[in-house]
Amino acid sequence: MTPDNKTKRVVIKIGSSSLTSSHGEISRRKLERLVDEVAQLKDQGYEVLLVSSGAVAAGYRKLGCLNRPTSLPEKQAAASIGQGLLMEAYSELLLSNGYVASQILITREDFSDENRYNNARNTANVLLERGIVPIVNENDTVTVNRLKFGDNDTLSAKVAGLVDADMLLILSDIDGLYDADPRKDPDATLLRKVEEITPEIEAAAGDPGSSVGTGGMKSKIDAVKIAMASGIPAFLGKAGVPNILLQAVEKEATGTYFESKDTAGNLNHKKQWIAFNSGPEGEVVLAEGADVSMLGKKRLLPSSICKVKGYFQEGSVVRILDFEGNRIGLGVVNYSSEQLREYDQTQDKFTEEVVKNDDLVCHLESSIPVGI
Prior knowledge:
By secondary structure, this protein is of the alpha/beta class.
């Protein structure tokens, strides 16, 4: 089925466990099957971007390790070998189907800097519009834990927002979200459609998953929350099921579909960057009695702030806290921390709001906590 009206843009996340053999190495058979299905989507007129794990799995044997490494230096060394091998395999297989692959390696810093974020967006858009299949991965060779996205589930959701995807497909070794852990509860039921991520759903997400990947169900739920807040429908299903990709985009696959019923809370592109990628540099505390419920509906004025924490410049993103210290939002400030601290003495110098409504994101605007 060809996409209606316009070419549909799909971001597909494939996890390490869905690409590896029982010995933890890249499975050529699994990779071929995945690429064949990507080609089917392309043949139907879809634009496809892959967020692919597997670099460490592809490279650790050639590093001389008998088992998947656990230390950070060995993981990064294995990734530096494996990333090239993985891309070579993807390129070869896609070319055999008539399509060209490209590689995009990014770090969290590329997303936290707005100019670099927009550059990445522009590059990805050119590639997709010209029929290329971008293959995205975190640059594991140089990133450290405090600068990592955390896992490719989260990365895929942020990339889906980056390119304004029409759908995010997360393929894993499980066939969807259950109301309980199916490994422990034989009566666990597969949830076919989810319109809101409730505390009960988060509790059912459980612990991290397989030994060859970094994300479990919790990371997938976090990714889905980002996608839903960005107005992007998501699907979670099992890799390796025949025709899973085509079935998923046609809403016919076995798995879990996530789509918010409240589209009024969807974040625009600027607010997505503020909420998920910006990296706040300080904090402002609202005065006691400030109407927190109105925060997402009006600008933030200097008279509403009672305390400033940290040091930041004009144009920085800061956390917004209520009087009790609870995090309630993020915003781009029009004044530095020094200027805000001098507000009582220089009220006449404040000619504009501290944060404009267009530069403000709060919990009340979406179903997800800001700053994931």
